[in-house]
Design goal:
The protein has helices spanning 3-18, 26-36, 43-54, 63-84, 95-98, 101-119, 124-151, 159-184, 189-216, 219-222, 228-231, 237-245, 248-258, 263-276, 279-300, 309-320; strands at residues 88-89, 92-93. By secondary structure, the chain is an all-alpha fold. Strand 1 (88-89) and strand 2 (92-93) form a beta hairpin.
Length: 323
């Protein structure tokens, strides 16, 4: 990120560093101090601040909502990592690995409560709308996570089903973050909806990019285990596109690799098969379609085009990132 986006990211980071959790019980709050200081791109809170600024409202006026979004996001990461049995997050041990599963569950639960408490600190005239949006989004994120887990047991997952799952699990929170900023900025209902659509579509592109990086990213930059989706037999867009386009021999090879116990061999084998089928290129086209939809929504917002530059810059960053 560059320029004003970096400034907002630093502003969010400063607020997070100053955010305090109770000292006791230590096993409840130490994991939260740990995960909140692991860093991360802080994209969601930055979106909230940008959403407010777009409608001529100072970023600081939306800071409680921005921090709430980041607290909630980290709650989802703690629980997702448990369910995925993920060893690393942002290049460091996950909470359930560093402590244990029970501590991680309870710490995640209290982080969700802290997110609601933080959101309630916004101006009273905005709190009800913000909480309604937050609660709807939180439920949708849980819906998406359940779909993701259900897909692990199904062999008939379709590409439209996958897109709906990542919409719920990932992109609705980006839409929520932007609409929160628009609410605080007293935007019209139409502009609020367009902000949400922009966030949702860029969120879909963002998750597809994440799927690509999971297999094709630089291990030193990505911060997570490369090939983690392949190892877990996750039905990502890459997986579903490969299964759709493969011939019978390739399908047999692909399904055989799912049972491969040598993880390096498994990841390398799947990557070779994907390369043969040009899967990375095909999935990138779908990613670009969602980026296009996002930019169309942004263009329709009734604000001077020059004032939208920071949101355009952030969208570009999300699509060109390497981690």
């Amino acid at each position: 990120m560059k320029g004003h986006l970096v400034d907002l990211s630093r502003l969010v980071e400063k607020e997070i560093q100053q955010y305090t959790f109770p000292q006791k019980p230590t096993n409840l709050y130490d994991p939260l101090r740990y995960i909140m200081t692991l860093g991360g791109k802080r994209i969601r809170p930055v979106l909230t601040l940008l959403g407010a600024e777009l409608f001529s409202t100072p970023a600081n006026d939306a800071m409680h909502a921005a921090i709430s979004v980041e607290l909630f996001h980290n709650f989802t990461l703690i629980h997702d990592d448990i369910m995925d049995e993920a060893p690393l997050r942002r290049g460091m041990e996950t909470v359930h690995t560093k402590w244990d599963q029970n501590i991680a569950i309870l710490s995640g639960d209290v982080l969700m409560i802290k997110a609601i408490q933080e959101l309630a600190k916004q101006k009273p005239e905005h709190v009800l709308e913000l909480l309604n949006l937050f609660n709807r989004t939180a439920a949708e994120v849980c819906d998406g996570q359940q779909m993701d887990m259900d897909f692990e047991k199904r062999e008939d997952v379709s590409i439209p089903e996958y897109i709906e799952m990542i919409r719920l699990k990932t992109s609705v929170l980006l839409g929520c973050a932007l609409e929160m900023g628009a609410i605080i900025g007293n935007a019209s209902e139409q502009d609020r909806k367009l902000m949400y659509q922009f966030g949702q579509q860029i969120g879909l592109a963002f998750q597809i990019k994440d799927d690509i990086l999971d297999l094709y990213g630089d291990p030193e930059k990505f911060g997570k285990q490369i090939g983690g989706d392949v190892i877990s037999n996750k039905k990502t867009l890459l997986y579903l596109t490969a299964l759709k386009d493969a011939n019978e021999a390739q399908k047999i090879e692909f399904l055989g690799l799912e049972k491969e116990s040598n993880l390096d061999k498994k990841v390398d084998g799947v990557k070779t098969l994907f390369n043969t089928l040009n899967i990375r290129e095909k999935v990138s086209i779908i990613m670009e379609i969602h980026r296009k939809y996002a930019m169309e929504a942004l263009a329709a917002i009734s604000i001077e085009e020059s004032q939208k530059e920071n949101l355009r810059a952030l969208a570009t960053y999300l699509m060109e990132r390497e981690n």
